[in-house]
Design a protein that fits this description.
- The complex is a heterodimer of chains A (about 100) and B (about 400).
- Chain A starts with 7 loop residues before the first strand and ends in a 10-residue tail after the last strand.
- Chain A is globular, with a radius of gyration of 13 Å.
- Chain A is about 0% helix and about 35% strand.
- Chain B is α/β, with parallel strands linked by helices and about 400 residues long.
- In chain B, the strands form four sheets. In chain B, strands 3-2-1-4-5-7 form a six-stranded parallel sheet, with helices on both faces. A three-stranded mixed sheet of chain B has the order 6-8-9, with no helix packed on it.
- Classes of the chains: A mainly beta (about 100), B alpha/beta (about 400).
- Chains A and B meet through strand 2 and strand 7 of A and helix 12 of B.
Chain lengths: ~100, ~400
Amino acid sequence: MDFKPGSRWCSVVCDTEVVVVKVPNGAVSLQCGGEAMVLKDHGEKIGRGPSSDHASGTVIGKRYVHDPSGLEVLAVKSGEGSLSVDGVRLTLKDAKDLPSSD
Amino acid sequence: MASDSKTSTQPYAGLRVIELSDDPAGEQAGLLLAQMGAHVLKLEPAEGCASRHTGPFAGDKDDKEFSLAYWYYNSNKESAVLDDTGDGKVSRLKALLKDADIFIVTKQPAELEEFGLDLNELVELFPRLIVLSITPFGLDGPWADYLTSDLVGLAAGGPLHMCGYDDHSIPPIRPGGNQGFHTAASFAHTSVLLALLSREQTGQGQLVDVSMHEALAVTVELANPYWFYPRVLVRRQTCRHAQPTMTQPALFQCSDRRYVYFVLILAENKAWSSFVNWMDSKGLAADLIDDAFNNLEHRQKHMAHIHGITESFFLIHDAETMYREGQERGLPIGVLNAPEDLLEYEHLQARGFFDSVDHEGVGPVQYPGAPFRFSAFSGVARQPAPALGSAGPVPAGEEVE
């Protein structure tokens, strides 16, 4: 998978769509719902939902990271599947506790 | 662009300045006058002033004619050696001051006494002379002879407390570029203009006592009013004004590892719409296009969420693109340029901001130009800083009663 900053990846088992924010340091396979994601407009849905152990959902507007590789993605569309790299679940990046602005 | 009505006159043409300064505040004050046409004669000891011995040096040549600090601060001046040993130095100086408009001096009280110079006496002897004293702490008071540096000035005066990063495990950081000394020089410039205006009306010069410490004490933005009124201290922040409580970060890294500075004022509906539309045009607005975010309170409550998406947005684009696209959309965004980035910047090139000055033995050197243009005055070409004593020795003068 050729990750570039700004590249869009879509789930083949749900509506999840993510944008790469930070590229991984090495080759990894980004999955959603247990299936490899595809570059936007470069693949079709496979006609079933996410596998049960990868169905915790992805939330729009949240960032997810894979610490070992440094891969970071921003979810621009929500979906039922959860994100993983080589089977390892991505973690939700903590939102900074910011003061409310003027 | 300048009109055709320019005269051949330079703003300070005709002003005669004698400069006896040995720190960046005095030298910068002299430069501000010289680069607008005043005739500035810099008096130096036989070994040359302190800035001549301050590196770095052009071509790494450790020589008093190759100091870059000396070059910068002393363009467009002349240099004469005032031998500060022996008894004749004061009479020589007074002979020069007899015909001068402004005398810039940075000696502190103990130094003045050792030199044999009484600034009040000078004003009495030469009624039209403006004596511009620029010292670390003023000409009187318990600290009048304390030593200083740019760092000491910024620390004692208050600005240093407000400079640094959000991470307060990192101590305050001194801003670069001699800003402490230059603040003093800026106040000195203003004050000498006021003294000149006064002299226009009264015919009288005066002694102007500029304290770097006091100049810096009033250059602390909101720190003073916050203390005077609600008795609240401000806290330093990364790339933002110090505030009593920490505010949202405004610095964002981009894909090319450069940074942009972007202030998103949530209460500004027009800016919010413009920003969301911008992100949405690239498919990156995520849920910020939801109607709920049209409500200010909702935006304030979800500031961290908005900030996370904003960070991502900038991280996947280069800084220059973000700067130009954001500016086109009327957003308050700027790109962080290192000094070396500015040399090739198209806007500065188009305005001819940089002056090229030819230095013997080195070749052409780029200098920052004047940050102002006058429609009624002619410009002042930047000239190399003078060689030590190139204006000749200061002659012995007649005794001045």
